[in-house]
UniProtKB/TrEMBL annotation:
InterPro entries: MFS, MFS_dom, MFS_trans_sf. The keyword Transmembrane helix applies. It comes from Streptomyces anatolicus. Residues 373-398 are annotated as: Disordered. Residues 1-178 form the Major facilitator superfamily (MFS) profile domain. This is MFS transporter. SUPFAM superfamilies: MFS general substrate transporter.
Amino acid sequence: MAALLVVTFLARIAITSVVTALTMYVVVGLDLSYAAAGGAAAALTVGLALGGPLLGRMLDRRGLRAVLLVTVAVQAVFWLSVTVLTYEALLGAAFAAGLLMVPAQPVTRQAIAAMTTAQQRRTAFALESVQGELSYMVGPAVVILGVALMSPGVVIEVVGAAIVTGGAVLALLDPPLRAVGDVDSTSSGRSPRREWLGARMVAVLLMAFGTTTLLSGVDLAVIATLEEAGQVSRAAVVVAALGMTSVVGGLVYGRLSMAPPVWLLLGLLGLTTIPVGLARDWLWLCVAVVGTGFLAAPTLSAVTEAVSRLAPAAVRGEATGLQSSAQSAGFALGAPIAGGALDAFAPAGGFAVAGLAGCAAALTGWLLTRRSSRGGPSGGPDIEAADRGTSVRRHGRC
């Protein structure tokens, strides 16, 4: 487990920085507009969103090393050719690179589910969420610093080399994706999609989308607030405060013997985000985002745990791929949604809309869960009941 977390953490640092690296290359290296950079980033993001279920299904059917062989080869070709491509060719290549990105995050989640017991899983998924928060804090910052110190073309190649190296080492590590005794996905035991992709799973995926929509909107609203106050240079401090409180929240969540349901965590996350817009300078903003940060990693961890529990082992790759796609879609749509609110209602509106989006996703998830619980079979055990059962078992062991 330690080796897996170290390798995938290094790979995820590189993967989380690809949008920033591509944006900086188009703006600085190709001397094009930010709109053009946004087009390249959008092509990559759409590829990531569509590639999640595709790669997950390949993991279920072909195994880890076969998928990594394909994705590492594609990444090597893309990152080696970026600096010689025209902008038009770059758009198509970025989409293909996103579609076949090294699946470090889904592999981590599947391996955790395979390598841990039910009593250990909450703590392990909390560590995975903390890992994700740290990678988002480190990756883009390193790229921006690298562009300031060297050419964007060199930074692009370093990022690509890190992704390829991470994928290759992950293939050598070859962590198990199924526990001993799990049904082989190549056998007739593969569950039809209609049996596990029911209302409960849809509720969790919707809440995954809502969580990242909120977090993406918060990032944009922080920048807008500081720009209005003339303190944009302090954005890194606020983002660091947000990230560190999220790390603390994830570690605390991993120690809990009884965890709240996903919809409650997301609802609280939304409610604590709405009033953040009342802060008017960087210092008060650091204080105001504590609640949002503290609940971010626990909410993401709870989503991952619920997906792992609701998906049969034979289709867990596809399920985690759908989760990654839902979260990628949330990140992609959160910024424009918050941006519209920022234009219409000033910075406070960005935080309010982001928080309300999270509350709406939490409410919808709760309604779907309750309806499914009352309506009979609809794709796996009840989310809340399963949480309570796991908590009781853990408490009994203690």
